[in-house]
């Protein structure tokens, strides 16, 4: 039976104020407060109710998404919405309704953005409840799992391997309890905790078990704010978002002087018609704003979250979708990722003449000694139930760092023995004859544990030295049926997979080979990896399978790959993966993984299916690739709008367009097609330098469109005469600008599929309908006069299209992204 170490303090339980006085927790040098009285049975129902009534509840809202108010505020109260809103109000007073259409479009777009984000919020919140960790709490003498938010002050909370400490407290029971506080302190070495020691929220258990009394809950807990921020739906820290913000900043700087010059010039030119001057000024300012770009980015991300949510994938940090699109190396932990969590004992091989029945008793007792067995020990418990009435005097839980567990028993006949169970190549010296037999089993992909007797005490640091091998326990791991297809997908998508495991390198290589991983034949024992980062990166680049990797090495390997410019995703489900998950560009945890891994991962696969990962990568590529694609459309419009305004100011002529004209052009060449293109499939791996990649097309495209349009406008001014010639001049310029913009759309829509061709054709047909239907001609004030000028406008547009095509190809060759 397991013997728990316990601390009891006599006397009545003191109020929270007395417990917490002067007990501010410093993660590096904690001040140890007086320990509260530990009550093994926990609080009573009445005491819980009393604490709830006075507000001593762990009420930190662990939100997976922004609040509804935040979503509405973020979509409505933007800089450009404010500018457009003012211009819209002005236009409602000075011009016909059709010149105010741009305002209704913004209202509709903002509404769409809010609805999509609210749908994403609903999806995320639902998934967060499914994936929420439920700590084990003792109340009324029994243990039950409850929601983190239901914990109250002085609750007794149990801990086991992989559990995250959710509130601050003081240890009351401990059995080999080792806690990693690296997420708070940066120190990677686990800390052995004894009764009376403090534990801090945000740390996690790496070995052993125990229980502690909660002394700080809610927002008073040390890592409460950290936990809240870590699980919040966010749009920040993204190259895409940062790039768009940078572009908008420069657009604002260009808009201010250009708009002032346009206002002055139009008032001078149209000194006899103030309302028309204002209308044409607004018509020049509004298209400078790429307002739909921010909206479309939010919608694309939100739709991505909803799509992934349907596949039971919880995106804890929104930029993770973008990050996965950029991933070129994915590090996979074997256990729980390539193999299923469960194992089966296939063979027991006694060594040195050991009696099989006695060995089974030892294994059964070892299983009973660990209250939180890992997958290997659980398989042994299932195969060899505890039947011996032995007393466990001391136990040593399994640790990923040391690669073995152990226990000391009083075996009933007066004999005391210390037993170790773990990795044979760690417990045995190199060259031991038993290792040859073990290597043969490992080459078959089997996992082998060594049961050995130690002559030393369990708390002796050298307990593993000079052990006597007693038996080999052969375990078979269950391969995930979807793992081979997933690895094949990564290979096809030019994403290099690295299997990084704490198991024997030969065994890991055999499993990877069964799954068809490229490079599985050459395996590396991580104990021989160079410590220097560059040298380690060299080995990592040349190999795909690594065994006997310690938790710290996993972290170092992620850093080494990143130092070579790789974008690294790390998958895992065990507590030994936490440090690497945290340091990787993207951390992916299985839903059945430890609470600590789920807390630090950006993406949680709630269905525990490794096969979901390609969907996540594909969704990221779709979002980023398409936003990069359609951003060119928006920014071509911004460039030609600014340049047109400058040309108008310098020429001192009337601005050629009314707001209704540019609303029509924007809708047909940008708004509608961008919506479809942004949600289309896209498997291209995202590339860096978003701003550079977009602007290298937007600038030449916008410049050519502006010059072509203004040329057409000036020729039309010379061609048409009379006081009412402006509508005809505007119509010719609009035709040139539409055809030029439609060709930009045709370039952006490549590679062509039937629906992309249909989309471009539909936009052209819609504009043709406006030109031929009388009431639409009147509504948009568009009517082509004569035959000569319209064909001149078409010819100019054709020349501009050819020039844009040549410019884009030259840019591709001269400035490859």
TrEMBL record:
<dbReference type="InterPro" id="IPR023299">
    <property type="entry name" value="ATPase_P-typ_cyto_dom_N"/>
</dbReference>
<feature type="transmembrane region" description="Helical">
    <location>
        <begin position="694"/>
        <end position="716"/>
    </location>
</feature>
<dbReference type="InterPro" id="IPR044492">
    <property type="entry name" value="P_typ_ATPase_HD_dom"/>
</dbReference>
<feature type="transmembrane region" description="Helical">
    <location>
        <begin position="788"/>
        <end position="808"/>
    </location>
</feature>
<keyword id="KW-1133">Transmembrane helix</keyword>
<feature type="transmembrane region" description="Helical">
    <location>
        <begin position="630"/>
        <end position="649"/>
    </location>
</feature>
<feature type="domain" description="P-type ATPase A">
    <location>
        <begin position="136"/>
        <end position="229"/>
    </location>
</feature>
<protein>
    <submittedName>
        <fullName>HAD-IC family P-type ATPase</fullName>
    </submittedName>
</protein>
<feature type="transmembrane region" description="Helical">
    <location>
        <begin position="101"/>
        <end position="118"/>
    </location>
</feature>
<feature type="transmembrane region" description="Helical">
    <location>
        <begin position="250"/>
        <end position="269"/>
    </location>
</feature>
<dbReference type="Pfam" id="PF00122">
    <property type="entry name" value="E1-E2_ATPase"/>
</dbReference>
<dbReference type="InterPro" id="IPR018303">
    <property type="entry name" value="ATPase_P-typ_P_site"/>
</dbReference>
<feature type="transmembrane region" description="Helical">
    <location>
        <begin position="728"/>
        <end position="748"/>
    </location>
</feature>
<feature type="transmembrane region" description="Helical">
    <location>
        <begin position="661"/>
        <end position="682"/>
    </location>
</feature>
<dbReference type="InterPro" id="IPR023298">
    <property type="entry name" value="ATPase_P-typ_TM_dom_sf"/>
</dbReference>
<dbReference type="InterPro" id="IPR023214">
    <property type="entry name" value="HAD_sf"/>
</dbReference>
<dbReference type="InterPro" id="IPR059000">
    <property type="entry name" value="ATPase_P-type_domA"/>
</dbReference>
<keyword id="KW-1278">Translocase</keyword>
<keyword id="KW-0812">Transmembrane</keyword>
<dbReference type="InterPro" id="IPR008250">
    <property type="entry name" value="ATPase_P-typ_transduc_dom_A_sf"/>
</dbReference>
<feature type="transmembrane region" description="Helical">
    <location>
        <begin position="76"/>
        <end position="95"/>
    </location>
</feature>
<dbReference type="Pfam" id="PF00702">
    <property type="entry name" value="Hydrolase"/>
</dbReference>
<keyword id="KW-0472">Membrane</keyword>
<feature type="transmembrane region" description="Helical">
    <location>
        <begin position="289"/>
        <end position="308"/>
    </location>
</feature>
<feature type="transmembrane region" description="Helical">
    <location>
        <begin position="755"/>
        <end position="776"/>
    </location>
</feature>
<dbReference type="InterPro" id="IPR036412">
    <property type="entry name" value="HAD-like_sf"/>
</dbReference>
<dbReference type="InterPro" id="IPR001757">
    <property type="entry name" value="P_typ_ATPase"/>
</dbReference>
């Amino acid at each position: 039976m397991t013997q728990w170490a316990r601390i009891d303090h006599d006397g009545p339980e003191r109020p929270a104020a007395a417990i917490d006085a002067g007990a501010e927790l410093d993660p590096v040098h904690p001040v140890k407060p007086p320990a509260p009285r530990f009550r093994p049975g926990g609080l009573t129902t009445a005491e819980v109710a009393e604490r709830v009534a006075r507000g001593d509840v762990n009420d930190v809202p662990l939100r997976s998404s922004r609040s509804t108010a935040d979503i509405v505020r973020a979509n409505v109260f933007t800089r450009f919405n404010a500018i457009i809103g003012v211009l819209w109000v002005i236009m409602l007073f000075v011009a016909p309704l059709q010149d105010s259409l741009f305002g209704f479009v913004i209202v509709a777009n903002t509404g769409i953005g809010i609805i999509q984000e609210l749908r994403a919020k609903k999806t995320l919140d639902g998934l967060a409840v499914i994936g929420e960790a439920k700590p084990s709490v003792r109340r009324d003498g029994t243990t039950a799992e409850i929601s983190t938010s239901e914990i109250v002050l002085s609750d007794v909370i149990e801990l086991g391997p992989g559990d995250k400490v959710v509130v601050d407290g003081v240890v009351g029971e401990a059995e080999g309890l080792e806690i990693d506080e690296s997420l708070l302190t940066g120190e990677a070495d686990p800390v052995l905790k004894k009764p009376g020691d403090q534990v801090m929220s945000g740390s996690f258990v790496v070995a052993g078990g125990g229980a502690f009394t909660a002394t700080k809950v809610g927002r008073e807990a040390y890592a409460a704010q950290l936990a809240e921020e870590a699980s919040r739906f966010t749009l920040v820290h993204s190259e895409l978002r940062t790039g768009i913000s940078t572009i908008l900043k420069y657009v604002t700087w260009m808009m201010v002087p250009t708009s002032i010059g346009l206002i002055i010039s139009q008032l001078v030119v149209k000194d006899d018609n103030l309302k028309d001057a204002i209308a044409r000024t607004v018509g020049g300012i509004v298209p400078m704003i790429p307002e739909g770009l921010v909206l479309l980015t939010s919608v694309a991300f939100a739709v991505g979250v909803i799509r992934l949510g349907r596949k039971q994938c919880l995106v804890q940090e929104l930029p993770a979708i973008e990050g996965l699109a950029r991933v070129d190396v994915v590090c996979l932990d074997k256990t729980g990722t390539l193999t299923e969590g469960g194992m089966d004992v296939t063979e027991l091989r006694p060594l040195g003449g050991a009696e099989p029945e006695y060995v089974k008793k030892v294994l059964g007792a070892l299983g009973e000694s660990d209250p939180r067995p890992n997958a290997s020990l659980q398989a042994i418990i299932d195969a060899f139930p505890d039947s011996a009435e032995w007393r466990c005097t001391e136990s040593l839980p399994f640790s990923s760092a040391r690669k073995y567990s152990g226990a000391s028993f009083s075996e009933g006949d007066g004999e005391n023995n210390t037993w170790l169970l773990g990795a044979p190549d760690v417990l045995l010296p190199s060259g031991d004859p038993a290792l040859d037999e073990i290597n043969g089993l490992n080459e078959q992909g089997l996992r082998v544990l060594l049961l050995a007797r130690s002559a030393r005490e369990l708390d002796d640091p050298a307990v593993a030295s000079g052990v006597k091998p007693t038996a080999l326990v052969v375990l078979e791991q269950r391969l995930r049926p979807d793992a081979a297809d997933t690895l094949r997908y990564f290979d096809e998508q030019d994403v290099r997979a690295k299997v990084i495991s704490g198991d024997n390198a030969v065994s890991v290589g055999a499993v990877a080979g069964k799954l068809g991983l490229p490079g599985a034949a050459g395996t590396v024992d991580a104990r021989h990896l160079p410590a220097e980062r560059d040298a380690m990166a060299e080995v990592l680049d040349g190999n795909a399978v690594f065994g006997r990797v310690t938790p710290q090495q996993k972290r170092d390997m992620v850093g080494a790959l990143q130092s070579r410019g790789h974008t690294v995703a790390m998958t895992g489900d065990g507590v030994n993966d936490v440090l690497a998950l945290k340091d990787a560009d993207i951390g992916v945890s299985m839903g059945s993984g430890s609470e600590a891994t789920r807390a630090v991962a950006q993406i949680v696969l709630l269905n525990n299916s490794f096969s979901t990962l390609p969907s996540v990568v594909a969704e990221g590529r779709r979002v980023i690739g398409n936003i990069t694609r359609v951003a060119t459309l928006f920014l071509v419009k911004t460039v030609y709008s600014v340049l047109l305004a400058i040309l108008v100011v310098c020429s001192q002529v009337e601005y050629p367009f009314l707001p209704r004209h540019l609303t029509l052009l924007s809708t047909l060449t940008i708004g509608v097609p961008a919506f479809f293109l942004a949600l289309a499939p896209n498997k291209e791996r995202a590339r860096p330098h978003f701003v550079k990649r977009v602007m290298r097309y937007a600038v030449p495209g916008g410049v050519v469109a502006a010059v072509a349009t203004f040329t057409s406008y000036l020729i039309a001014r010379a061609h048409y005469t009379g006081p009412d010639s402006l509508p005809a001049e505007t119509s010719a310029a609009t035709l040139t600008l539409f055809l030029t913009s439609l060709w930009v759309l045709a370039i952006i829509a490549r590679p062509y599929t039937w629906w992309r061709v249909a989309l471009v054709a539909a936009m052209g047909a819609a504009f043709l309908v406006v030109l031929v239907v009388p009431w639409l001609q009147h509504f948009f004030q568009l009517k082509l006069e004569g035959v000569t000028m319209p064909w001149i406008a078409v010819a100019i547009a054709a020349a501009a299209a050819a020039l844009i095509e040549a410019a884009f190809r030259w840019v591709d060759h001269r400035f490859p992204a």
